[in-house]
Structure formats: C-alpha cells, structure tokens
Amino acid sequence: MAGTHLAVENLNVYYGRQHALKDVTVGIPDRQVTAIIGPSGCGKSSLLKSFNRLIDLTEGARVTGKVIVNGADIMSPGVDLAEVRKKMGLLSQTPWPLPMSIFDNVAYGARLHGLASGKGLRTLVEANLKKAGLWDEVKDRLNRPAEGLSKGQQQRLALARSLAVGPDVILADEATSALDPVSAKRVEQLFIDLKSEYTVVLVTHILRQARRIADYVLFLYMGELVEHGPAKQIFENPSDPRTQAYVRGDIS
User: Fold this and answer.
1) Could you give the 3-state DSSP secondary structure of residue 11?
2) Fold of the domain built from segment(s) 1-87+168-252
3) Where are any strands of DSSP class E within the chain?
4) Which is it for the CA torsion 232, 250, 241, 63, positive or negative?
5) Which of 211, 208, 212 is CA-nearest to residue 234?
C-alpha cells in the first residue's frame, strides 16, 4: 500500500452488535477514480465514512483497525480531525449549501483555515468554481444566496467548497443520486477531469456509472471486501462468483 494517500488495514466497523465491515484491507490508487460497489447494506457508506472519521458521528459505531492517510493512522488517539477532514473533501447524497452567498460558500473553509484573504481569497474562489465547472454560470451573482441554485449547481458548489481547502482525496457518497440525468453526467465528467490532481473515491449503486467512470473498483458483499482491482478486470473477468453474479445483475 506504499505510495497511496489512502489505505485501510484490518478495518472493522460495528453498529452495536451488527458487524458492518469485516477485516477490510485495501489501498486506494492515487489519482484514479475508485468506485465502491455492492448491494444495499453491504458496508459501502461505512467504508467511505471511515476514510475521514465521519463514522464517529454515527451513534453506536465502533471501529477497529487502521485507516492510513498520507502515511499516518487517523484512528490513532490525538489525531487532528479538522486537518484530516480538510484533506478529504466529501460530497454527500444531497447537496446542502451553507446559508450564505455563493462566494462565501466557497470561501468558508479557506477563511476558517486561514488559507487566503483579500484578493487572494477572490482568486481562490474563482479558481475552484472553475474547477467545479460553475464559474460561468454564477460569476455575475456571487453575492446572491446559494440556495437559489439548482440541485446540480448546488452539488458543484459543494465540490468547489471542498476543493478550496486543498484536499488530497475527494469522497463522494451517491453524489449524483439526487440529480437529474444531465446534472449527474456533468458531475461524473468532473470526477474524470479532477483525477489528474486528486484521488476520487465514490460510492455508487449504479453499475452503469461505475462502468463509465471508474478506473478501480471495490466490490463489497455482506460487509466483506470480496474483490478489488482495475475496473476492466472486475466488470469483464471477475474471479469471485459473488462478483460475477453482481455484475450480471443477479444480486441487487
């Protein structure tokens, strides 16, 4: 797992007596799009939330094992979680713009972490709105409330806000499921474009989406990491019968 920004070793997640993730060990390839696939309830979101310790916010959750980010175990005592989460941008299923202007949404994290001010902040906001494919649509209304944007625009705004604090990894939890097809395709294309600079990890229940944009795939089933590898291998020549059944559509 050397050379990866993100890896897990013997990761277990429990919710009370439920064993949601079972001894998962895997490295996430740098600067690729990695898709986590599997049936509902198989542990996809639990794995994703472990990557930035958001799993801590789930009542009754208990985690054992290691989550390695840039060579350090973020499960260790005394870890600076604010710094960890700054490096792990997250797009949730439903975009939630902050109750402030479009400009201030993007600037929020950068201000919080003291990354820029004045003209530098304006430059940072513009640069990241461009990366998120939103600048041309909002450049003349930066001071208007972000709630006025469409759902697709709000999701791209959330992406710009994450990018503005300088992450290494972009996490996406069903990030297109609440969007119309055109908006979803735009976000998919952004993930493809951004992998030249960032590692992208997405949870998706849409196999067609994983086939379109993933370079690497993790298949989870009943809390176990059954198989992982290059997307072409997983979709065209999987080795485990459970993976074969899932990609055929026999398991849903």
Assistant:
1) strand
2) Rossmann fold (3.40.50)
3) 6-15, 18-28, 33-37, 61-69, 72-73, 88-91, 169-173, 199-203, 216-221, 224-230
4) positive
5) 211
d(CA 243, CA 234): 8
- The mean per-residue pLDDT over the stretch 17-42 comes to 96
The secondary structure of 178-238 as a DSSP string is TS-HHHHHHHHHHHHHHTTTSEEEEE-S-HHHHHHH-SEEEEEETTEEEEEEEHHHHHHS-
Band (4; pLDDT cuts 50, 70, 90): low
Specify whether the CB–CB gap between 201 and 210 falls below 8 A: no
Q: Tokens 């998919």 sit at which residue?
A: 188
- Mean pLDDT in residue range 118-126: 92
116 and 59 in contact (C-beta within 8 Å)? no
Model pLDDT for residues 187-200, shown as the tens digit of each residue: 999 999 999 999 99
Token reading at 97: 């713009």
Domain map of the chain by residue range?
1-87+168-252, 97-166
Task: List beta partners, residue 35.
Answer: 202, 217
Confidence at 115, pLDDT banded by 50, 70, 90: confident
Strand order in the sheet with 6-15: 18-28, 6-15, 61-69, 72-73
pLDDT in tens, 10-24: 999 999 999 999 999
Nearest-Å Rg of the Cα atoms of the chain is: 18
